[in-house]
Here is the input.
Amino acid sequence: MRIRDKKDLVSAFAIGAFGLFVIYEASGLPYLSEFGPGPGFLPLWLGIGLFVFALLLVLVNLLGSASMAEKEPQSWTVIGRALGVWFGLIVAIALLPWLGFGLSFALLTTFLILVLEGRPPLTAVSAAVALSLGFHLVFALALGVPLPSGPWGF
Amino acid sequence: MRPMNSYLLGWLAVLIGWSFIQPVSVAAFQPTKPVEAVVHTGPGGGSDILARAIADLLQKENLIPQRLQVVNKSGGGSAVAMAYLAEKKGETHTIGFFTGVWVTNPLTRAEAKVTIKDLTPIVRLVLEPAVVAVKADSPYKNMREFVEAAKKNPGQLKQSGGSVTGRDNLVRLVVQKATGAKWVFVSFPSGGERIANLLGGHVQMMVIEPQEAGEHIRAGNMRVIAALTEKRLPAFPDVPTLNEQGIDVPVIPQARGVLAPPGVPKDVVQYWEGVFDRFSKTAGWKQYLEKNQFEDGYLKGPGLNKFFDELTIQMREVLKEAGAKVVR
Amino acid sequence: MEALGNLILGFSVALTPVNLFWCFVGVALGTVVGVLPGLGPAATIAMLLPLTFKMNPATAIIMLAGIFYGARYGGSTTSILLNVPGESSSVATCLDGYQMARQGRAGPALGIAAISSFVAGTVGVLGLMLLAPPVARFALRFGPPEYFALMALGLTMVVFLAGKSMIKALLAMLFGIWLAGVGIDLFTAESRFTFGQVELLDGIDFIVVIIGIFAIGEVLVNIESRGGGELFKVPKGLRNLLPTLQDLKDCRFALFNGSVVGFLIGVLPGAGATIASFIAYGIEKAFSRHPEKFGTGVVEGVAAPEGANNADAGGALVPLLTLGIPGGNTTAIMLAGLLLWGFKPGPLLIQEHPELFWGLVASMYIGNVMLLILNLPLVPLFAQILRLPYYVLYPFILGVSIVGVYSVGQSLFDVWLLGFFGLLGYFMRKLDFPAAPLTLGLVLGDAIERALRQSLMMSQGQLSILITRPLSGTMLLLAAIILLMPLANKVRSWRMKAVEQEI
Here is the structure.
C-alpha cells in the first residue's frame, strides 16, 4: 500500500479525532429547539463533515497515484527553530502581566536575535530596546492604544 | 461649690458626648484620578452611549473633579463586565453602569458567576419604556387586533427581536400566557436588522424603544400600537397601554443605573450617591431624559435593593416559564 | 438634475478649509488604522467621539467617515507586504498581493490596490448619491432566506480558493465555521464549546484568528530558513514601483466587478466588506481567462477584492443615511455619533438636513482623491519596509500582532489565543492546508447559521421557504451551479482523456 503523503495521513487522523470530539460535544446540545434547529444542529453536522472529509483524505492518500513522489524530507532542525520561536512568544505572553509589554517584548526580541539569528549581543539588545521604545512611543503615546502593562505602568 | 462642679461636669459630659456624635469631618472622599466607568456593551452600544453622555454632563455641570473614563468590557451579555467589577473589590475609582441584563444574565448562564447582589448598588437613573410597533400599512390598529390575529393563526405571525432572554421576548411570553395567542419570535443580533426586517415585511411586529422608533414613525414607515408602560407615554398620547387594552400583564422594566464594586467603603458610596443625587436634578439631565424619551427612574438606598430583589424574582419566574434554563 | 444641484450644495460645504482639514485628518488616520492589524476603525471612531462634540456635526461626520473608508485603503498595505491582513476585508488581498510581492512586484501590487480602491470607492459614492433610496428599498427585500442564500453563495467561493486539494480546503472551511460557532447561541442562549471560560462566551474574535494564522504563522514559517539579510528583492527604479499599463488593462473587469459587488453587498445590513471582497475575488477568477494563475500573483486578484472593500464603504452608508439603519459595527457607531449630535438618522434626514448628507457625499469624493494622492507616493516608501533586515522585521511583526490583538478588548486571553492560532497557522502551512477557506468559514459561519435558523423560525420549519422565494431561490441555484462546476470540469477532462486513449 503506497502512502502518498505521510503528512496528510497525520493531519487526517488529527482532524478525524477532532471531528469525533465535536460530534460528542454537539450531541450534548439540543438538536432541535422550539422552532427549527437547535444549538446542537450545526456543530453536529460540522463534526460529521470533518470526520467524513478526513476519511476521504486518508482514502485519497492510500489509493491515489504516487505522483507526488518527490517531497523533500522534513528537516526536524528547521521545525525546531520555528517551534523555538513559538515558545519564545508564549513565554513573552506569559510574562506580559508581570513585566508589561515593554520589557517582555524587549526580552523576546533579544531572544530572537541573539539565539536564533546568532547576531552579537549588542545588536540584539540595542535592537530590542529600540523596537520596544518605538512601540511605546507610537502606540501608547501617540495613538493612545492601551498596551499590557506591568507593575511599573508600561 | 459642689453644685458648681457637677454643673461644669455635666456640661463637660455634654460637650464630650456632642463631639462623639458629630461626624468626624476628615476630608471626605473625592476622586483623585480619572474614574473608570464600566459598561457591558462595545462602543456604540446602548450602555456605552448613555455612559458617555452622563460623563459629558457630569463634566459640564462640574459635579466631579475628575473625568469619567468609559471602559468597554463586553462579552457574555454582562458577564465579563460584572466579573471585572467583582475583581476590583474595594476599588474607589471604579463604577459600573448596569441595565436589566445585569440582573437576568447570571440567572441563565452558569459561567456568569457574579450576580447583582455581589455588587454595590448606588442609584437607578432611568426606566426605559418600550412600545410595540408595526409597519405603517399593517392591518393591526392596536395590540388587541394583533393578538386576535395571532390566536386565529397560531405560529404564523412573527416578531423580530434580540436575544431570547431579552425584554422583547419576555414581553411576548407574558402576553402569550395571558391571552393564549401564539406567535413566532425571530432573533436578530442588531437593532438595524430588526427594523429592516419589520420594514421589509418579513416580520409583522417588534418591541422597540420609543426614541429608536421615533424617526421611522415621523417618516411614516412605522406605527405604534401599544405602550409597554404603566401610564401612557407623553410622546404617544393616543397609544394605549397593554393594560388599557385589556391585556393584563406586569410591566417588565428596563432599568439603567450606577453601581460600584463589592467592598467599597461607606463614605465612597455616600459620595457617589451625593453626586448622582445632584446630577439627577440638573437641567441637562432632565433635557437628556426628555430627548431620549426615558422615564426618570431615580431610586437609591434600600428602595433600590428592594427593586433588585423583586426584579430578580420576577425575571426568574418569567424565564422559567419561557423554558430557559435557570441556573440560579 | 436635482442631484447635481444638491451636489453643488454639497461641495460648497465640503470645500471649506475646516472641512477639508478634518477630511484629511480623517482619511490619514483611517489609513494608519487600516495598516495596523487589530486596531479597527470602529474602536478609533468610538475613541474620537467625545472630541467631536465640540465640532460642527457636518465636519465631525466628514472626519469619521474619512476614517471609515480610509481604513479600507490602509488594510491592503500589510496584506501585500507581509501577508498580514490589516482588516478582515483585506484577507482576500493577501492571496495574490503577497505573491506579487514575493516576485518583486510589491510596488505594482500596492499601486493597483490604491488605484482600484480609488475607482471603486468613487463608484461607491456615486451609487450612494444617485441610487440610495431605490437601492435601500431593494435591500429591504432581503430577509433571512435571502441572507442565507447570499452566505451560501459566499461559501461556494471556496471552490475558487481551493488550490491543489479541494478536500483540505473544505476541511479548513468547516473548521472555520466551527470556530465561528464558539460562544453563546443567540437563539437559545446556550453556550457552545466555551470550555467554561467566561472569555469565550462572546466567541473568538475574528481578528485574533487571522492575525494569529497569517501574521504569526508566516513569521514561524519564514524563520525556518536562516537566510540572508533581506526579505525579497525590492526592485529599484520608479518604473518598477508602479503598475504598468498592461496591469491596468488587465484590471478593467476587476474594477467593474469590485465596484458593483462591493457596493451592492455593502448596502445589506449585516453583510460586510469581507464577504464582498471574497465574492469579488471569486467572480474575478470565475470569469478570468487564466483562472489557474490566481493565487500565484495575478494583478486582478488584488484589484477585485480591494475595489470591493472600498465600494462597500459607500454602500454601507446607504441604509444608515436613508433609513437610519446601521449596516455594521462601524456604521453603528457613526449612528450613535449622529444621535449624540442631535440628529435623527432616518428616512427624513436627507430632506431635512441636505447639507449634512450632500456635504458628506461631496467630501467622500474629495476624500478618495486625497487617499489616492496619499497612498500612491507612499508605495515606494512602504516597499522599503521589505528592506529591513528580517531579524528586525520579525520581532516587529510579532510585536504589532500582540499590540493589535490587545487593542481589541484589552484581554490577555485574546493574546493567548493569538499564540494558539499562530501555532495552528504554522502547522496549516506545513501541512498544506489553505488559510483563506478557514477565513471564509469563520466570517460566514455565524451569519449563515443565524440566517438558516431565522428562516426556519419564519417558516415554521419548512425548508422550502429558501427556494420558493424568488431572490433566495435564484442565488441558491447559482451557488449550486458553482459547487458543481469543479465536478463538471473533472468529468469533462476525464472524458477527454478517455477519448484520447481511444485514439
